[in-house]
Specification:
With 161 residues, the chain is an alpha+beta fold. It contains 2 helices and 7 strands. Strands 1, 2, 3, 4, 5, 6 and 7 form a 7-stranded mixed β-sheet that branches.
Length: 161
């Protein structure tokens, strides 16, 4: 059974699969970028959680990143913008990833030009995605909800007088 973090990242990867460009997760940049472009999900950094003690919960603002990459000769800026907008549209349609997160939001993309020897320059944008979620343990699998304890009313009747 995967951890909460892995479950959320897998759900984000699945959501990004709805885009027309191929989507990879934590892979190196391909030698040849498909004509539709390429999206690469980077797991990112969960950061330092804030903690509540009763009940014990770790609240994360996990910063993942999506790299949108194109290699077309002309219109590269527009092609990257279309990929970034597609990511934004997908996230807007699933702000909680089916209830796995409290909230998912993208930040403004950072443009990047990547020089490649013997080929046209790649145009990319790094899109930070913030995943807000809570877990009972940062390293363990999700713990099912504890069974409810019956109300203690009438507890005195169970002891002899």
């Amino acid at each position: 059974m995967p951890t909460t973090r892995e479950t959320i990242l897998a759900a984000l990867h699945a959501l990004l699969q709805t885009q027309p460009a191929p989507v990879l997760r934590s892979e190196v940049l391909l030698e040849r970028v498909p004509s539709a472009g390429l999206l690469i999900l980077r797991d990112g950094d969960p950061g330092e959680p804030s903690v509540t003690l009763s009940p014990l919960r770790y609240h994360y603002q996990h910063r993942a990143e999506v790299e949108a990459v194109v290699q077309t000769g002309t219109g590269r800026d527009t092609a990257v913008d279309v990929l970034a907008a597609g990511v934004g549209t997908a996230l807007a349609a699933a702000r909680t990833l089916g209830g796995l997160c409290d909230w998912v939001e993208a930040e403004a993309p950072r443009p990047v030009d990547l020089a490649v020897d013997g080929a046209s320059t790649l145009k990319a944008a790094v899109i930070p995605i913030v995943l807000h979620y809570s877990t009972s343990d940062p390293l363990a699998w999700p713990v099912p909800a504890a069974p409810s304890i019956p109300h203690a009313a009438g507890w005195r009747e169970s002891f002899p007088r």
